[in-house]
Amino acid sequence: MAMICRFPWWPIRPVFPVGVFWALLTIAAVIFSIVMLIDCLKRPASKFAYPLTKNGEYDKLIWGLVILLSLSFYCVGAIVYFFVVKRAKPQGGEQ
Known about the structure:
It contains 3 helices and no strands. By secondary structure, it is an all-alpha fold. It has a domain of 59 residues. It is elongated and about 50 Å long.
C-alpha cells in the first residue's frame, strides 16, 4: 500500500497546480482593482451614491486611497467600492 503513494500520478495530486490558480487569481484581483480605481477617478463627485463627506467633496480621494491601500489585503476596498458605489442605484428620481 505504501508503494502506491510514491507514484507521481496518484489521484490525490491536483490536475491544475494550486500555485498557478493563485497566480491567476492575484492577477485578476489586481486588474479588477485598477479598473475600479480608474472608475473612481473618472467619476464626478456628484455621482457617488452615498457621500462619505459633506457635499461629497473628498469622496474621490477617500475611495481612491481605500482601493490603493487594500491592494495588499485581498482587494477588499475594490470589492466594496464595486458594490457600494458602482452598482448602487441612483438616489432620487435620476435614471
